[in-house]
Structures are given as structure tokens and as C-alpha cells.
Amino acid sequence: NSFGLCFSVSPCFLLQWVLAFEIFIPLVLFFILLGLRQKKPAIPVKEAFYSAAPLTSAGIIPIMQSLCPDGQRDEFGFLQYKNSTVTQLLERLREVVEQNRLFTSDRPGLGQDLENLQQHLEGLSSTPLPPDYNFTRSPDFTLASVLKNQTLFQQFLVKNLSLSSSTANVLLNSTVSLMEVEVSSPSSVDTESDSAMTLCGPQGLLLTGSMLELLTCGERGDAELRKILLLPEEQQPVLLAYRSSVCRGGPAERSERFRQLSQELREQIDTQSITEKLHLEQPSFLAALSPAHLRVMLKDLADVERLLKDLDLLSALARLLPKGACAGQKSASSIANGTWPLNTTTWGPNTTDSSTEEASQGGQAGGKEEAENPHSQFSAFVQLWAGLQPILCGNNRIIEPEALKQGNMSSLGFTSKEQRNLGLLVHLMTANPKILYSPIGSQVDKVIQKANETFAFIGNVTHYARVWLNISAQLRTFLEEGRLQGHLKWLQQLSSELQQHPQLLNGTDSELMQALLDGNYTIPNTSTLLEQLDTIDNAACGWSHFMSKVSVDVFKGFPDEDSIVNYTLNQAYQDNVSVFASVIFQTNKDGTLPPHVQYKIRQNSSFTEKTNEIRRAYWRPGPNTGGKFYFLYGFVWIQDMMERAIINTFVGHDVVEPGNYVQMFPYPCYTRDDFLFVIEHMMPLCMVISWVYSVAMMIQHIVAEKEHRLKEVMKMMGLNNAVHWVAWFITGFVQLSISVTALTAILKYGRVLLHSDPLIIWLFLTIYAVATIMFCFLVSVIYSKAKLASACGGIIYFLSYVPYMYVAIREEVAHDKITAFEKCIASLMSTTAFGLGSKYFALYEVAGVGIQWRTISQSPVEGDDFNLGLSMMMLIIDAAVYGVLTWYIEAVHPEILLVGQWTCGDVGVALVWGWSYQAQCDGGGSGVCHGPAAVLRPAL
Prior knowledge:
mainly alpha, three-stranded antiparallel sheet
């Protein structure tokens, strides 16, 4: 062997280098492991505090803010968003709710109000007015036609206002638009005396110096002149010349100039001529309308005035929502002109709403282009969320159209938190989710109705949005035609005349007379109302588009739990329903709920953790923040929803406070060592790979000795088999013990196994080395060719590690429980026993205590009966079993069988299994046996 005498310097020197290589080659991987350890040391981690997460009872705003990508924790763990405008939004909502009757309990509802508004507008539109009620029904006239002396007034324009004769002549022949005179005449005058004048004497109002100056030299003077004085396009520069001439100079000079113009107009205008042209004969005002018609019109106008104030409220609320929700589709007006499908369903716990119909309705409303876009629902949600982020989160997000077309959130720049939460939310909303409950037809229905209030509110908003889009076009047409303003003008004119001539109301009932005399009707101008319509149309269109494929009919009742199970297993898939969870209540025989309500939640297994994965089977420092499936996937949400609904049902009113939040307990400071997580599998694998070469070389040397008949030579010298195997054991143990000692120093003082006892590390590795030597002995007796034995021995040695890999995968991936007996059976392979033992080194190092003598017979894994002590005992048993098998196989199994004769020496004779015999050769050293007639003697 390698410890024989060297007869030459060169071969001995070479043999020493080979021996040194065999000793230190197992250390290479561990030096690499040591380098990795130095690159990845343990990291101290500060104490951890966690944010409070809202549940359904906390309110919709906190829930939506929980989707925001970032936030600052306050001292109690609640997230704050300093740039958020939610506070201003809520204050604005409170103000508009307190100042308006739209949200009072005695109101019939928004949908009824919208229908009433439409009816009242139609009533006003059909109410006849007298043919002489305003200027708009009278023909336009030229300025010269109502002057007493056209020549004198033209001379005044030329001399006093420095206008040219041609300019003065064009102005005198310009046509006066009576409709614009009517629109321009209301309370745009500053002085109190001017504002008190009536339309019966338009020359008194329009011919004041302040009004003339305002219409001519005001901010919109040029536009106002173009509207009142109608001139052909080629004569429009005349108006500019007139305006520049009369508006020059300082304020005092300009006021004096317009005062003179006003005085001249008062003297020159023929009042009787204007009265005849405008049909302002007073006795005709009440001739065309009966008191009944007046009363109906006044009621309609009063209701319209009130409802338009509600319209102002709705536009104020819609203005708070993100704009451009329907960008890229149709304009608000064109959408309003379409007809949206109405859903007159009364939202409740037992309503049935077909998601297919919702989808088809949304496709019709959104247009053909959106119907062909598979990502339309995703796009609508992303755009809505991006628009709400400045309000909720305080940060602006720009959605690029190209990124939106890709249909994934990562391309839109969303954080991992947003992708997880928003992706799950979109999936749940569009998958037709259902929460099944039982028993139906009992007091449980009231509880479910309370729990369904939020979803019912969302459904009602969707319904109102569609109602609004259906009547928006009619409102727009009515406003653009000017009928509402015409009725208002006529009533204001009539009220003013009646205040001056109350005798006209003789025979009229007192209520109508008082209403006409009051006549204080104010309605916003058309442009303001149209802007409000656009704002509400945008919000309604965006909401309808977003909800087109979202089902808010969440709850579905069943008589008992068996019906729920049967529906979930057999019918839900055919109905295209995603069963999210089921809630089963225990009720009395009469269907009422007992004072102590008991119920169970059975959630879809796809949205819950497996019970064997709720927590790790062993303890390690650090918080368990990886799961939270009971929160993220809705189990706690359903529980909170049901608990609050039960409370509201029993107390008889809604309990708003306190809102429920969930918050993880804080975790103290600890040391995190990510490197130790790989020790469990890296250390046994490194050991197996490192000693493959040593095992192969030892097997090769032993078999080579047999192959070259050296073993027979030693027998002839008087050495028996025991001396032969002991010599090889000493050789292998001395060689491996050097590696074991070096490995112990590397693992302990290289801070790989920092907390473990070094003596236990050395003892464990030493026992494994002994088992490895015996494994080499067992493999060596099977082969007679050294090269073949070396190659196959290394492969067999590595394959013996496979059972440990199987056990590790079953325990850590499949989370199956492997009993101690099964591990002991697998540990009959020494490398498997070594791998199982190394696992406990890693687990105790992760826990920060390491393997000690007091823990050598204990497992840190819950429910695990195996431990490091059993692993070391199995290694000892493996060594003993390998040794017995080596002796037994060598004694009874012939390695070389030659046809025609028996060979002696190291070649045994196959005998009866169970007792060992060895052929007795005679003839001295002839080496020839006597065949079947040979004398046999026991080997023992």
C-alpha cells in the first residue's frame, strides 16, 4: 500500500504528492463555502413595526388607500399620505350634503329626481306662451327705423363722436338683434337704479350711459356689438372703428362721451314705434294663458329650479372624480345622445343578475371598438385608478397608451404591491364572484341584506349612471333651444308688470297671485348648465364603462349546506360562477338567529393556505410576513362583513364606529443569516461531492491489490484477511481523519457553524468517515477490476445520496410528514444519514443556538421524532452492516469463475448460502485444486 517502503526518491516523492492531493481535495469546496460565508455575513435587523390594514367596516376610502404604493406610518401604525386630497374631498362632500336636500331621507331618490326633471322640462316645453311675450317672437329692425330724425342723429355721430359719414351711415342701417338685446339686458348693470328698470321700456335700460359703455368697451365689448348689431362680414371693420373711436381716452372722458350718446338716443328714439314693433301692449299678457296653465307652469319651473340645484351638486361631486374616463371613445355629448340599457333591478340579497347581460350591455354602451378590445375592462380599471391616485395617494401617475395596450401592469410602472392587489381585485370583480349562504328564507336574509349594502350601493350608482346618460341628451337639447330661459324671461317680465299693475290680477286666486308677484326665479345660464352636463356625463360614462363587466350581485342563498356543496361541485362551473366562499349559519327551528350566533365560513381552497403550510415547522428568527393569505384573499374581510352585519341586525341600526383594522404584532430586533438557509442542503452535498474522489481511489487501491494477486501473496506469507482489512481501515481512517479535522476547523472557526459544539461536529464527521470506509470495503468485494470498481464505486456512492433528496423534497416542498422509522430505513445509506444529520446542524444554527450536547437528541422541527443522535447511531449501524456484508460476500461469493477448473488463492468457491466453506487446496504451492473431490473445511 501507500505506506510501503520507497526504493527510489522520485516515485516516493510522487506518491507523497498523490497522497496529499487525496487528503486535501475534499477541502476545496469547503474553502469555497468559507469564502461565500465571508461575503455574506449575518446581518443585524432592527425591530419591525407593521402598518394597520383596513377591513370593510373601516370604510371605502381607507380600503382604496391601502392599494396605494407608499405611505408614512404614524405612531399608531396607520398609513398617512401627506399629498392626498381626501380630506378636502370629504369636507367638500360634507358641505354639499349639508347644504342640499338631495341626500335627505324624505327625498324619493336620485333616479326619481332625474325622471321628475325630465317630466318637468317636457311640461315646460309643451306649455304655450302668448305670442307677444318677448322680443324673440318679434322681427328684427334697423336702428334708423326707430329714430325720430335720422339726419340729426347722424350729424351727432359725426360731430360729437368723430365718426366718418360712411361709418355713421352703416351703424344707422345695421339690424338690431332682439334676442341678443333680451339676453344682454339682465342684471349685468352695476348701478342699483339701472338694474331696477324693466323690459317694458328697453330704451330706459339699454340707453343708459353705463350700459352703453359696458356693451361697447367692456371685456367682451367687441363680441357683444357683433351680436346686437348685425352686419355683413365685409362691414365688420366698421364696428371696430366705432369701438376704437368711442372707447378712447380716460374713464372720465369716456363716461361723458357715453352720457351724451345716451341722452341723444333718449331724445331721438321713438318709444311708440318700439312698443308697436315689440308688441308690448300691457292688456295682452294674461289673455293667452289661463290660471290653470300659469299654475302648472309655475310649479314646473319651481321644480326645475330646485332640481337644477341638485344638478349643480351632482356636477360638483363629478368634478372631484378623474377626468377623461371615456377618453379615446366618444365625446361626452355623443355618448349622451346614445341610449344606454337600463337595469331596473331592485338591488338586494337575492337578486339575480346575469353577468353575460352586463357584459353585452357594456359592449353596446362602449361601442364596437371597445367590444373588440379584450383589454377594455382592464384599461378602464387602470385609467380609473390612475385618475384616483392624486386624490387618494397624493401622487400623479401617467398612463402611456402604448403600455396600456400591452395589458399588463408591470409595463405601466406599477409596484409589486400594486400589481398583486390590483391584479387580484380585477380578477375577483370580473370573474362573476359569488358568496353562497344558507339557510335562505330565515333571519339570515336580513343579515345578508345588511352585508350587501355596499354592493347594492354600487349597483344603484351604476343604474343611476345609465339613467342619467339616457336623459342627458334630452336635457342638452332643451337647454340649447333656449326654451327654459324663454320661460324664465317671460315670467320675470310678467312679474314686473304685475307689480306695477296689480289690477290685472283681479279674479285670480290668492296663491297664484302671490306666486306671480314674487317672481324670484333664478336659473344658471345655458353655458354653465351645459358644462355641468359634460362633467356629469364624463363621470357617468366612465363609471358605466368600468362596471360593464362587473357583477355586484354577490350573495346567493341556499336552503342548507349540502345544497351549497352540490352547487359548487356540479353547477357553478356551468353557470360561469366563481364561488368565492360560503357562509353557513346555525339557526333555530323557526329560522331565527339565537343570541349567540354561530356560523362558519368555507372559503374556496384557491384563496386559502393549506393547513400544513400555515406556519413553519421549525422556529427561526424573524417575523412570518410571507403569508397573510387569510387577509389578502378575503377570509378576514368576509368575517368582518358578517360580524358587522349581525351587529347591525340585532341592534336595529347601523353601527359605524369603530372601524376594524388588522395589524401584525411588532417584532424585536434579531440577527438574520440568509447564508445558513443553504447549509441544510449545501453541507451534505458538498461533503458527498468532496469525498467522491477519495472513495473512488480507496476502492481502486483495494481492488487493484486483488487484481494483481498481492492479497494472495500476503496470505502465503501468513497474513489472514483480518490483518488485510485492518491495515486498509487504518490507512483510510488516517487519511480521512486529517480531512475531518480540517473540515471541523473550517466549519467552526470559519463562522459557518458558529454556535455548534466543535467536538460534536468532529465526532459526527468522524463517524461518517468510518461509515464511508466500510462502504468502500463493501463495494471493493463486488469487483475484480480496479478501474471498473473505481468508476462504479463513485457512482454508487453518489447515488446513495438520492434517498435524502427524496426525503427533503417530501418534507419541505410537499410538506408531508416522514416518520422516524422511514428516515431510519433511508439512513441505511450512509450519505442519506449524513444529509439528515447535517439538516439539524443547519436548523439549530438558524435558530441561533447550534447543536449542543443537550440538544443532540432533540429535533427543532415540530412533530419530528428523528434527531442528530439517531443520525449518528444510524451511521454506526451502517458501518457495522457494511462490514458484515463485506466479510460475508467475500467468504461465499466467487468473483472469478473459470470453466473446467477451480482456481485457488483469493478466489473462493460458491457454496451453500448460510454457511461459509473454503476449498482446501493441496499439492503445496502448485495452486491446483482437486475439483469436486477436494477436502472442504469450515472457514470459521
